[in-house]
Write a structure and sequence with these properties.
This protein is mainly alpha-helical and 224 residues long. It folds into 2 domains: 3-48 and 164-223, Endonuclease Iii, domain 2; 54-158, Hypothetical protein, domain 2 (Endonuclease III, domain 1), CATH 1.10.340.30. Helix content is 61%, strand content 0%. The chain contains 13 helices and no strands. Helix 3 runs antiparallel to helix 7 (105-119) and helix 11 packs across helix 13 (202-223). The relative contact order is 0.15. InterPro entries: Alkylbase_DNA_Glycosylase/TA, DNA_glycosylase, HhH-GPD_domain.
Amino acid sequence: MTLKETISPTPEIESLTPETFTHALMVLAHLDSDFARILKKFGPPPMWERERGFPTLLRIILEQQVSLASAKAVYARLCEAIQPLTPENFLTLDDMQLKGIGFSRQKMLYCRELAKAITNGQLNLVQLETMDEMTIRTELKRIKGIGDWTVDIYLLMALQRPDVFPKGDLGIAIALQKLKGLTTRPTPTEIEAIAQNWRPWRAVATRILWHYYLSVITENKKIK
């Protein structure tokens, strides 16, 4: 019996626990020698957990196509401006207030659409927690401004689903190119193909790749 077979595939509606996370790291190290090398050199990655609900989903929208540091700063100013950060409270802010906080006009639209969908009953984030990934993806993508990457990050960080894989994530693409010695940055389709071997723990593989990206690639940029 192989290491991969010592535990049955995790149902996709279950969330990662510290125990299954540790097991998944062992499985992935066995499957991929590059992962084993990362874990040996840098130790295990964080689980990167976020609370479920509107504030986290809004923060992920802010993180679309900008640096995490920039999005974090905007989110921090937003949390200072309104407490608690609820859909209803968010909708009380006008364009000038949001612009002062750091919202682009596009992000204003997207976050308001999310807030309105929750307040009018179109979207129930609590009910989504118990649904399968495809249903969650379909429901969230009905909201303007929410695409696959946003859904992936919410599933991965907030709902802690074990096999979610954000194939469109730039950090993963850069990490894979360096880790696998690829001449060009892999496309989302190529990344998805590479990741098939990591099922049913692709969300844990994502964390290993982020860990590698933050530990090696971003540090090298700082040195330069």
